[in-house]
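User: Please predict the structure of the protein below. I'd like the answer in structure-token form so I can feed it into my own downstream comparison script.

Assistant: Understood. Taking the following sequence of 330 residues as input:
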Amino acid sequence: MLVAGRRLVAALMRPALALAVGLGAACYSNEYLDGLCANTGVCPDPPPESPVAFRITSLELVDPHTYTFDTVLGVCTDSTATLNGFIAQGIADYDVSNVLVLRPLDPNSAVTKLQFVSALCIAGEPTNCTDRMVAGTHTVDADAFNREAGSCGGTEPNSLNSAYDAPAQPPAPCIVSQRISGTPVRLAAQTGMTPLDLALVEVELAAAYAVDGEPQKLVQGALRGFMPAAAAMMPAGQANGISFVPWNVLAGGAGCQVDAMNTFSDIDNHGLYGQGVWMYFNFTAERVQWATDRPEPMPETGGLGETDGTGGTTSPTGDATATTTVGTGS
């Protein structure tokens, strides 16, 4: 019944979503503008670089792990694989479409604009996505920096558990965002249920470019952010009809312990937010068609400073900044 209901809702939503992704603002080619300039003397600015969007096609929590008590077996179990499978199903069903939009896609450019948005997408060849009808709370803009050597992204000191797999470290050529002050990261949006969003602060996205082949991709991606304890103790949404409270599945929080004789904690301490947890996800993303009503180019979000090596930016005066502009949606 639930599956049938979801299919009915999807069928009813498809025409509206198709309209949203299919209608774009008028644009003019460089040839047209060149001719206008030559014939009339009116020489408008050339059109901005078209935005290039990448939909996240895999997203896995690698640190911390989640722990739940199995009432049937009467034991505490590591439920991370179950959570990641749940996330993967939502992505495969197009219930969730987190998208990175680059303006422009140019690995040789020192600085580019990055939009991270919980978009609406329709599967197909190609997949079509849009930020039309997306709430402004679920789209955020930031500067991002391309690197031709070394790697992108990083981890916070003393925030990883050596018993878990390490987060991805994207190799160059790669891109890393400035540290975003805060944004929700959507994990699930099941029909008839409250979407499951993690309220993260100091978010950083990084990925390696794999854009020479088809489809173009962002690979070995790493998404990290801090969830303060106050946010983690609140319901983040629903999973299969059950309220999901992050704190209740964290070791050191209210989560159970696999071995009561050898307890441990995944809880971290933040200099500003106090107790909470640094969360690390690995991801990959594939290029999709993108439709938007946003004016181009985007306004400046954090200046043209250089990266300070911490995921933030450094202004011409040397002061660190993490300014972002939240979009307005539709």
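That's the full token string. The longest strand covers residues 274-291.
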